[in-house]
Structure to design on (111 residues):
């Protein structure tokens, strides 16, 4: 059974940083792409960042230069380092690989 579990969400002040982690079980993340999306109230689900099987990365324009997606092979995980957070980054962050979604982790940024 494939399971993705996100962690690392928190409430922070604007300008702060967080690192989200998405740990997988039942699937080898090292052979799959991994991506982070976010859901904010009143907005469409948005792709935040993606890392391909080959390690290539894609970022939404709104986070490029502030967020970094990477793999943690030791934990079979994909992480999202978020710097320079702003209230506009407040969302539930979800990870996905293939057709499997995690349940999300809440990030709240206050001004």
């Amino acid at each position: 059974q494939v399971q993705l579990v996100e962690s690392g969400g928190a409430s922070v002040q604007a300008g702060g940083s967080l690192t989200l982690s998405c740990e997988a079980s039942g699937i080898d993340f090292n052979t799959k792409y991994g991506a982070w999306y976010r859901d904010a109230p009143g907005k469409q689900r948005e792709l935040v960042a993606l890392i391909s099987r080959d390690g290539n990365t894609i970022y939404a324009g709104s986070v490029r230069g502030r967020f970094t997606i990477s793999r943690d092979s030791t934990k079979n995980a994909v992480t999202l380092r978020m710097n320079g957070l702003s209230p506009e980054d407040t969302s539930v962050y979800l990870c996905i690989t293939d057709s499997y979604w995690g349940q999300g982790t809440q990030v709240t940024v206050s001004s």
Summary: The chain has no helices and eleven strands. The CA atoms of residues 23 and 77 lie 4 Å apart. The mean pLDDT is 96.
